[in-house]
Amino acid sequence: MIYSGKAITVTALDNGIAELNFDLQGESVNKFNALTVDELKQAGAALKVADGIQGLIVTSAKDVFIVGADITEFGNNFSADEATIAAAALETNKTVFNPIEDLPFPTVTAINGIALGGGLEMALATDYRVMSSAAKIGLPETKLGIIPGFGGTVRLPRLIGTDNAVEWIASGKEQRALAALAAGAVDAVVAPEKLREAALDLVQKCIAGDFDYLAKRQEKLQPLKLNDIEAMVSFETCKAVVSGQAGPHYPAPVTAIKVIQKAAKMGRDEALAEEAKGIAKLAKTDVARNLVGLFLGDQELGKNAKKWARQGAKVEKGAVLGAGIMGGGIAYQSALKGTPIVMKDIAQAGIDLGLSEASKLLSKSVSRGRLTPEKMAGILNKIQPQLGYDNFDAVDVVVEAVVENPKVKQAVLAETEQQIREDAILASNTSTISISFLAEALQRPENFCGMHFFNPVHQMPLVEVIRGEKTSDAAIARTVAYALAMGKKPVVVNDCPGFLVNRILSPYFGGFMRLMKEGADFTRIDKVMEKFGMPMGPAYLADVVGIDTGVHAGEVMAAGIPSRMGADFKTTHEVLFENNRLGQKNGKGYYSYEVDRKGKPKKVVDAAVTELLSAVVATPKEFSDEEILDRMMIPMCLEAVRCLEENIAASANDVDMSLIYGIGFPPFRGGALHYIQDMGLAAFVAKADQYAELGESYQPTEKLREMAHNGDVFFA
């Protein structure tokens, strides 16, 4: 044994070959935590002085190679100043990865499973890479707001060329084996069971002199092979394209290009110093902090959901009441992920619409090569359409998705309860109606909860699982288990008007309609909020959701929380609704809609809307971008605070992750509570106080004032 640690062992094999094996104890995957990095340093030092070693293979004892850096350690690593972070990054490369690359014999990595981030960078430090045909590799760091820090921006361009490397690094996408081979990132692709054998064979051929490993190594040590004109054209073109794709809020992809460009004429060691400066600069940004927080928040969300799911029985078969677009979407998602589902409606037209929705979504996957026609047929066969309650005694969870009318829902739920087993769970997909109220019609309210999907079901990851006054833990657990089985991200929330996401969104629309009343231009508001990072502005969002849906939701919210959600004026939503401008669903709302070349609705400004709204809108008034942003965001953020204080959500993370996954709150801003914290609680309270005369929705809670005074935060 040349070296033995808790994450790495180095063993002498036959014929002068050594094997460096990653096997992090106590973990299901290998990752570059502080322990592993330190042990790799020691292992490299031991290999350098080991007697009789002529070659090295690098392997993993786990099902994956290395998943990347331990992101839980980023907070501590990035807490220092920029210069200190850069120095630490450069030191890691000099003392950990460079020594592996500089070993006095050939080195080959056997890539199994996945090798992401630091995992791929480890492989790049060796002379050759053999990859399993089932494996994937990639450098996803830009998705966390940073760039590769273990030499990825230096070694990858020198192996696969500037354009390919920029595409890999800027996009952060995973690459399959054949694509990696074609690009030159790996040297061979073999069947998984032949991986180790192939790595040993390659290193033996290097030892025998069949391959010039030193020449291969030299490619990574020397500057990029580009003349000045080639470099200028390549890098400037890349920056223009990537900047347009990434947008102004995500600096990491363009920073990666700039780092590669600066290092183009440098040797390895100088180039690594540029990489260290780049990662240090990004590590201190709010974007990186929030994107790293998003990754960790997603993990926390998943852990909490799995805890719930472990307490509940598996859902072998589901059912949805009410077909149509929403019911069809739920049926599609359940069947796609492997859970058979009954789709019931009272009319054949509804069944036809639901099946059409599922078929349309599956056909798209077939046309894109993601599904075969045979698999599509198999998925459709998991959807059982019917007009009656046949076989409902075999169903574990029933999701009610009928019209958003309390009396209709109560009647349907009560009827369905008589057709299912006593231990089966009833869930309502209502977006606004109280779960406790709907439960009043049931004999077993403990087996009833909300299961609120967001539209379109196949695209929106969030599912709110809503606990009513009498909902049991067993009902929550099984519903969460079903949501997980459907590939969704469930968040357990307590019952209240609008639940969590729609309740927080309601004051946002309230701010929008008050701005409109005072003379703001809705197209200008949309532009400001889209510039802020929202996927669409409030007027456009209202059209997509449906003006009728928005009016109905507004009425429910106003009845439930009149002091903040009610309007003492006629809103622009109401005017559009009265004039049958329902949004995209009938081609006219705040905007009018035309079909573009791809068959999708394209919004266009309609002068008739301005005239129509003139009765409830004041003389046009110019508002600054800052005031528009403040008046939209303050009520939304304060409602998020209230939901946390009132225990509607269990944690600040649940609040922010729900907004990101439910309405597309800008990920780089981290969520409403992160937005407050990044501004500073005291600064946010002071800003809100400037608008206090606009009403309660702009007035901070006493607890928030206390937190601001004490210097408290939502996230440590």
TrEMBL record:
Q: Which organism is it from?
A: Pseudomaricurvus hydrocarbonicus
Report the PANTHER family cross-referenced here.
TRIFUNCTIONAL ENZYME SUBUNIT ALPHA, TRIFUNCTIONAL ENZYME SUBUNIT ALPHA, MITOCHONDRIAL
The GO terms describing molecular function are: 3-hydroxybutyryl-CoA epimerase activity; delta(3)-delta(2)-enoyl-CoA isomerase activity; enoyl-CoA hydratase activity; long-chain (3S)-3-hydroxyacyl-CoA dehydrogenase (NAD+) activity; NAD+ binding
> What biological-process terms (Gene Ontology) are attached?
fatty acid beta-oxidation
InterPro entries, alphabetized: 3-OHacyl-CoA_DH_CS, 3-OHacyl-CoA_DH_NAD-bd, 3HC_DH_C, 6-PGluconate_DH-like_C_sf, ClpP/crotonase-like_dom_sf, Enoyl-CoA_hyd/isom_CS, Enoyl-CoA_hydra/iso, FA_oxidation_alpha_subunit
> What cellular component terms from Gene Ontology apply here?
fatty acid beta-oxidation multienzyme complex
- Cite the 3-hydroxyacyl-CoA dehydrogenase C-terminal domain residue spans from the record: 498-593
Gene3D superfamilies attached here?
1.10.1040.50, 2-enoyl-CoA Hydratase, Chain A, domain 1 (3.90.226.10), NAD(P)-binding Rossmann-like Domain (3.40.50.720)
Protein's name according to its UniProt entry: enoyl-CoA hydratase
Which pathway, metabolic or otherwise, does it act in?
Lipid metabolism; fatty acid beta-oxidation
Q: Which reaction does it catalyse?
A: a (3S)-3-hydroxyacyl-CoA + NAD(+) = a 3-oxoacyl-CoA + NADH + H(+)
